[in-house]
Amino acid sequence: MTGPDKKKLYPNENLKTVCFINNLPKRSNVEIGDYTYYSDNKKSPERFYDNIEHHYEFLGDKLIIGKFCAIAEGIRFIMNGANHRMDGITTYPFNIFAGGWEKVTPTVEDLPFKGDTVIGNDVWIGQNVTIMPGVHVGDGAIIAANSTVVKNVEPYTIYGGNPAKLIKKRFSDEKIAFLLKLQWWNWDEGKVFDNLEMLVSGDGLDQLMG
């Protein structure tokens, strides 16, 4: 055995509240790694894309999510299409209404653009989290439930609150550096299976570091 079939939308047929979202229909502006799952007890997890808001292809920003991430219900990814022009006296979007206000339609260059939103590998995102445009969440990070993430999150840290702030590091700097070099999420399925006990054990990291 080497684990569940990563190509199945529902890797456990008895648990239809959890799906591997990499197997949803592809979108050109969304990239999702293997084994990353979305869990939703209120609606079908197949509706994961409903949680990506204001995401327009003409802007060019991407949502990139790594491997082995755990994403809970209520997630909201706010993308760059939500931004209003902010360099004038007012931020009111006159141009989206009729009657001649279209004459002040901004160009793409006029709008704030914060780039791609990137979620690393082995990231756990709790319930009802909002992630703002252009945020990068590092590998191994944990985002507490009900948080709003407005700035980058360092690898192997725990963030929480509104706006989300650093609560603590999960491991020492030495251990974090080791894990970032190890990149266990890039192991083949057989190696992951053979090392499951070590990966989930409280002293597994010490064992790996010798």
TrEMBL record:
The keyword Repeat applies. Its EC number is 2.3.1.28. CDD domains: LbH_XAT. Pfam families: Hexapep. One of its GO terms (molecular function) is chloramphenicol O-acetyltransferase activity. GO terms for biological process: response to antibiotic. Signal peptide: none annotated. InterPro entries: Hexapep (IPR001451), Hexapep_transf_CS (IPR018357), Trans_hexapeptide_repeat (IPR050179), Trimer_LpxA-like_sf (IPR011004). It is an enzyme of class 2 (transferase). Keywords: Acyltransferase, Antibiotic resistance, Repeat, Transferase. NCBIfam families: Vat_ABCDEFH. Belongs to the transferase hexapeptide repeat family. PANTHER family: ACETYLTRANSFERASE, ACETYLTRANSFERASE RV3034C-RELATED. This is Chloramphenicol O-acetyltransferase. It comes from Alkaliphilus metalliredigens (strain QYMF).
